[in-house]
Amino acid sequence: xxxxxxxxxxxxxxxxxxxxxxxxxxxxxxxxxxxxxxxxxxxxxxxxxxxxxxxxxxxxxxxxxxxxxxxxxxxxxxxxxxxxxxxxxxxxxxxxxxxxxxxxxxxxxxxxxxxxxxxxxxxxxxxxxxxxx
Length: 133
Fold this sequence. Notes:
Oligomer: single chain
Shape: elongated
Helix content: 25-40%
Mean pLDDT: 79
Strand order of the largest sheet: 1-2-3
């Protein structure tokens, strides 16, 4: 039976009328207890010129398995991220520091290595503050 099939036709995806192409995850693994699925359906659309018309592909991927052993370095990085994120959120709302932070941000923005957004600047300042502690 497989000998009579054209292998190029097996990989071709044809969508309903009105749909040219789709790209991205069509279904993701569910985290809903008994109905969890271990697979993900991923569609891609190739826009580069090719010799054939087969520019749509579907892939069935296994869900990544959660890691059970996390290194102490990764745990400390996660802790630092959480703490700095809390510092940034608090500092962005602190009325006593907003005007000074805005002035400092504007002064460093156009310098080499300067942060381009206020949020990035606050992450830099709060990260340095956390590392000093």
